[in-house]
Amino acid sequence: MNSVTKKWLFMKISSVILVPLMIWFILNLVSIFDKDYIEVVNFFTTQPSKILVSLTLVFAYFFSTLSISEVFEDYIQNEKIKNAANKVLNIFAIIMPIITITVILNLN
To answer: Which CDD domains does the annotation name (predicted)?
Structure first.
């Protein structure tokens, strides 16, 4: 399978997975929006919330990385700059969810 086809397929699959996760996240964000700190922390310390927030972050970063790399492919002509930008983007897309998920999993 062609790499461009794989990227397109991964974008479509991740977007389909993100729809219910984002609906869940938005509905819960609205429900905890006006709560105090303790109630928000309690929400994020429950096991289903930890798992679903983690999945949302992973798929959101994965989808955004694929989307932004397409912008790099379309608008950056210099191959060295394009490759460097894609590498920095991929590193960022790995490190940020790991840090965020680690913080969420360590909430008590």
So the answer is: SQR_TypeC_SdhD_like
**pTM for the whole structure:** 0.84
N-to-C CA span, the chain: 45
Taken in order 9, 51, 58, 63, is the CA torsion positive or negative? positive
Dist CA 35 CA 42 (whole Å): 11
DSSP state of 4: H
pLDDT tens per residue across span 43-101? 989 999 999 999 999 999 999 999 999 999 999 999 999 999 999 999 999 999 999 99
Amino acid code (one letter) for 87: K
Q: Angle at CA 49, nearest 5°, toward 21 and 32?
A: 90
